[in-house]
Amino acid sequence: MQKISLCITNYNRNAYLFKSFEHVINDDRIGEVVISDDFSNEELFNAVKEKCKQFPKVKLFRNESNLGCYANKHKSVSLAQYEYCIVFDSDNVLSTDYLDAIYSQEWSSKVILAPDFASPVFDYRQFGGITFNKTNVSEYVFKKGFDCLINTMNYFVHRDSYLSVYQPKDGIKGADSIYMNYLWLLCGNEIKVVKGMKYFHRIEHEKTEQKSNYVSFAKDSAPMCDSLLQIIASMR
C-alpha cells in the first residue's frame, strides 16, 4: 500500500488543528502529518509543539516569518516525504471516507483529486465524476457552485507536479485556491471531482480561534476571484 503525506497549514490555531487529523492519524495510509506553522504567536506555537509530541507521525515546522496562506500551502507540500499529498487547512476535519475515496481512484501526476462535498455548506456533488481541463472548463465556470469548487483546496495532489506549477504572487489572500487551480489547468493538468470524497469544512469559528481564510478575506478577494473566473472561462 502506497502511503501519503497529509500536509496541513496552520496559523494561530491549536484545538482545531488537532481536530483536523484526529480521525486519520492512526490510519496506515497516512505516512506522515506535516504541519507548516505560518509564524503563529510564540505562546500558541509552543503549546502546539508540546502537544505534537503525542503523535509520532506528526512533523511540525515553523516559518521564520508569516508567508500567508498561499505560499504556506506550497511550503507544506515542499516538506512532504511522500510522492502524493493531501493539502489541508487546519480548521477543517478529515475523515476516513475521504481516504477511501482517494484509494478507490487511479492516481496520476497530472490529476488533482478534489472532494465533491465540503460539508455542511459547500455541496459540489453535481460535479461528481467530472474531470476539468483547459479544453472543457469553460462549460462549467458559470454553473452554480463552480466558483466555490474552484476556490477550494483541501484536495489530493502529486507533490512534485503541484510544486512545479506554483508561481509566487503577492496579495493573493482568499483567492489562493482559485489562483493555484488556474495555474494547474493552464499547464495542461486536470482536476477530477471524486464522488464520495468529502470532509467537514468549518466556516464560523469560536472567538478563541483564528478566523478561516475564507471568512477573513472574502470581501477583499472577491474582485480577484471574479477576474480569475473570467480568465478560466476563456481557456481553450
Structural write-up:
It is built from eight helices and nine strands. By secondary structure, it is of the alpha/beta class. The strands form two sheets. The protein has a five-stranded mixed sheet with strand order 3-2-1-4-8, with helices on both faces. Strands 6-5-9-7 form a four-stranded mixed sheet. The protein has helices at residues 15-20, 42-52, 69-78, 96-103, 146-150, 159-165, 176-186, 213-233; strands at residues 4-10, 30-37, 58-62, 84-89, 111-119, 122-123, 131-132, 156-158, 190-200. The chain is globular and about 50 Å long.
Report how far the terminal alpha carbons are from each other: 37 Å
Q: Rg to the nearest angstrom?
A: 17 Å
Q: Please state the structural category.
A: alpha/beta
Would you tell me the overall average pLDDT?
Answer: 94
Helix content, binned percent? 25-40%
How is the largest sheet built, in terms of strand order? 3-2-1-4-8
Number-wise, the strands total 9
Helix/strand order? EHEHEHEHEEEHEHHEH
* Approximate shape: globular
Keywords:
single chain, 236 residues, alpha/beta, 8 helices, 33% helix, globular
What is this structure's SSE topology?
Layout lengths: L3 E7 L4 H6 L9 E8 L4 H11 L5 E5 L6 H10 L5 E6 L6 H8 L7 E9 L2 E2 L7 E2 L13 H5 L5 E3 H7 L10 H11 L3 E11 L12 H21 L3
Parallel strand pairs: 1-2, 1-4, 2-3, 5-9
Antiparallel strand pairs: 4-8, 5-6, 7-9
Question: What's this, in brief?
Answer:
The chain is α/β, with parallel strands linked by helices.
